[in-house]
Amino acid sequence: MVDIIDPHLDHGDSRDKWRGLAEYAADHSDVIRRAVAVVRIGETDWGLDLSKPSIREALNDPDVSLDELFQSKGSRRIAG
């Protein structure tokens, strides 16, 4: 089993990439334990587990910004 960690400082154009990574992780769940997108919002680092079905669904909702998605469904770690 492997974990995929995908860090981005600028995540404005990453939604399509993360949708593809989420689909890839779902299609290969026999070898991928999780795929986590990581961003920094303000002074906080956020991780979002793209392998979760609820996250894959939320990535398809254009009305939810990536910042909102990370802050509502992600895990946070204070930077510094």
Q: What is the element layout, followed by pairings?
A:
Layout: E1 2-8, H1 15-27, E2 32-41, E3 44-49, H2 53-59, H3 66-73, E4 75-78
Parallel strand pairs: 1-2
Antiparallel strand pairs: 2-3, 3-4
Description:
It is globular and about 35 Å long. The chain is 35% helix and 34% strand. With 80 residues, it is of the alpha+beta class. The protein has helices at 15-27, 53-59, 66-73; strands at residues 2-8, 32-41, 44-49, 75-78. The chain has a four-stranded mixed sheet, covered by helices on one side. The chain has one domain (2-76).
List how many beta strands DSSP finds: 4
List the total number of helices. Answer: 3
Main sheet?
4 strands, mixed
- Give the overall average pLDDT: 91
- The protein's oligomeric status is single chain
Overall structural domain count: 1
Unreliable spans: none
Shape, principal axes of CA atoms: globular
What proportion strand?
25-35%
Order of helices and strands: EHEEHHE
Distance between the termini: 30 Å
